[in-house]
Amino acid sequence: MLDRKFIVEHADAVKQNCRNRGVEADVDRLLELETQRREKLHEVQELNRRANEVSKSIGKAKDAREREERKAEGRRLREAKEAAQAAHDELERQIVAIQACIPNMSHPDAPIGEEADSRELRRGATPVPQFDFPVLDHVELGEALDLIDFEGGARVAGHGFYFLRNEAVLLELALQQFALRQLLDAGFTPVITPDLAYQEILHGVGYIPRGPETQIYSIENSNLSLVATAEIPLGGWQAGQVLDAEDLPIKLCGISHCFRTEAGAAGRASRGLYRVHQFTKVEMFAFTLPDQSEAMHEHFCQLECQLFDALKIPYRVIDTATGDLGGPAYRKYDLEAWMPGRGDGGEFGEVTSASNCTDYQARRLNIRYKRAGERGTRFVHTLNGTAVAISRALIAIFENYQQADGSIVVPEVLQPWVGKQRIETRAATAAN
RNA sequence: GGAGAGGUGGCUGAGUGGUCGAAAGCGCCGGUUUGCUAAAUCGGUGUACGGGUAACUCCGUACCGCAGGUUCGAAUCCUGUCCUCUCCGCCA
Question: pTM to 2 decimals?
Answer without folding.
Answer: 0.92
